[in-house]
Amino acid sequence: MADYPTKLADLPKEERSVSSGHRLCTGCAAGTIARLVGKAVPDKPLMWVNATCCLEVATTIYPFAAWHVPWIHCAFENAAATASGVRSGLDMLMKKGRIPQRDIEVIAIGGDGGTYDIGIQAISGAIERGHDFVYICYDNEAYMNTGIQRSGATMHAAWTTTSPAGEAIPGKQEFKKPLLRIVAAHGLEYCATASCSYPLDFVRKVKRAVDVKGPAFVHIIQPCLRGWRFGTEMSFQVARLAVESRFFPLYEVYWGHKFVLNYPNPILTKVDVEDYLKLQGRLRHLFKPERKQEILDVIQAHVDKEWDKLLELAEFSERSATY
Amino acid sequence: MAKAKVLGMMGDFAVAEAAKLCNPDVIAAYPITPQTIIVERLAEFVADGELDCDYICVESEHSAMSACFGASAAGARVYTATASQGLALMIEIVYITASARFPVVMTIANRALSGPINIHCDHSDAMLARDSGWIQLFAEDCQEAYDSTIQAFRIAEDKQVSLPVINCLDGFVLSHSIEPVEILEPTEEETLDGFLPIRDPLYKLDVDAPIAQGLLALPEFYMEIKRGQQEAHLRSLDVIKEVIQDFGDRWGRYWPVVEPYQMDDAEVAVVTIGSSTGTGRAAIDELRAEGKKVGLVKLRCFRPFPVKDIQAALKNAGAVGVCDRAVSFGSTGPAYADTAGAMVGRSGPLIKNFIIGLGGKDITIDTFRAMYDNLYADLAKGEVEEPVEWIGIRGE
Amino acid sequence: MTIQDEYRKKGWKDLPPGGIVDRPATARDYKTGTWRAFRPIRNKDKKICQNPEACLVCWILCPDAAIIRVEPNELEIDLDYCKGCGVCALECPLKAIEMEQE
Hints:
Largest sheet of chain A: 9 strands, mixed
Oligomer: heterotrimer
Radius of gyration of chain A: 19 Å
Order of helices and strands of chain A: HEHEEEHEHHEHEHEHEEHHE
Distance between the termini of chain B: 53 Å
CATH superfamily of chain A: Thiamin diphosphate (ThDP)-binding fold, Pyr/PP domains
CATH architecture of chain A: 3-Layer(aba) Sandwich
């Protein structure tokens, strides 16, 4: 069994991926997520393929590049395809002896937009072809980089600029696209959900993903203080509630069919999803000027249904999420 | 000097043979008529162990160029091919690849852009990449398509250039026509007897020397970066000519960027791109026998546009018609625009634009006769009445 | 001189090819500490946090890597980059960090 860090002090001190000086919003957890990826694989060199997204734009305003690793950005929807090429190129050059043999990890990262919607073709193709790389989707439930437009990942009833909470239509009508199940349906060896509020769990999952000889996928929820409308200090508090309320449970899928639930433990008393929703300004219209109980009920029912579905599929692992 | 043997083969086959010879490390391609034979043939080479390369069967052309971009960034030699709608789908990444200075080589088997959907030859697809920053060469016959593919890798990977190259061959007319092709069998296969050294990247993704590619450049820097890209592109013309010379010295075939045919005393002339050049030569031979002083200028290198070479080739003609197998709706054909731009302000020929052969409309000796008659009429009048004329369609 | 100053001085001919930046972490020249409206003060009146390595929550969650682990077992807040988001103050289990107006 691989060695996973069990406490934060086990993580390397130095920054290996993103550096200070980036221009992500004050308090944006995407910065934390990028730092964690670098700390998850301290023993192997990384190459970083970034889709167009907040992380990409905010970290690379020419000539300021906030990256310690070789970093490449091509376009919005093709991080997985670009990563396929990087992987291929590296492997062929090593095979032909043009560059030294090394265990270089290719990490592709994109937001929910670049992965779920415009990027779904590229990720599906790359997984189907079996390239050895890790794809990390950091999901803030909208096209945040372009100003909070709705994506397939946006939750039901959320306000976004293209699904505004109006007089006639109170926010996005559709439900969150079940991305991890779509990815898992490809039958890949490993994919998992994670949350920025559970850093060691995320690190473990990135490490596990990197160890796979083939494609692996980690889907991490990243509450966005600008787009979800909450205070700059609250990203991790909101992310914790996303998980505890069972809105975004942490689980892993092996070979597309073995589901392992990490957190929350089903024994724990259920946290109402309302506790999660009421922290977020994008859902304010469900509470003010008057409470929209029907919509709250729909959201809770959906969360309950998805949770029950997951419990049917998953065994609960003792290796539950630690901090 | 490498030995040579002659085989009858389709243009697509010839291109695949040439690509194989150049030992690409990665091929990422998606099939589309009329390029399919290229990707199929290459897949056979790989499956038979004749070509040691990673052949990525991508799920779309957009991913094809993205994977080429990534592989080239890693330092690999990369090849791909497409046409028409495939090029249209990947065009976003085509521009980005040139801006990154990645020396990908791509064959386009020229096919008309939809709509309507049409699988036959015209140059509208290549013209989509006209402004992208890729070097563009057009082949007149299957031999040239073969030779151009080999030259393309050398041109692209030259560190003074480090730009991607498009090789065009006319869809079906060349891609699916069998012609005699002299293939090379170099003694030293890795570098083709020194003609094509192993790629030494201008820069690459390297864990020991991290770089960042694909930053956001605000107005303060974007234009300067693009000026640098333009400089590399303009500079490439000298390298292209050196490579043409070297190839010719080694293997006896010279393919100049601009090639005049019977232009010394030509009263009227056409400028042609691609396979129609061959038909033009045949038409000229017939017309010359009838005593008409007609000529032709073959434009082989479309990007960078060889301004000085075109000026020299056309300066003594009385009336010139630039033949475009594409049109920029609302304006003229693209080659005409570049040619007229090169000739503006100079005393020289009358210049007009012929739109010919769209969507595979056949270009015959009669087409050329019609164009030359048209040019003679303008010459007699001393002016161009109709600057753009569509030749060979009913009702015109 | 920041990398931006350096590049502003260059003409187009002297910029690296392909729009690349040819060395790592050049963004460190951009001091995001200027964004701050509030600054974190750790252990303000008394030493609440005495053993950072037992916890390190603030260090790991900081989006800007603006909390640095210093030998042997101490933490420093890097005011060059701290944007004053307040995550460290909210998440500290001991409430050892307070946010003070700049």
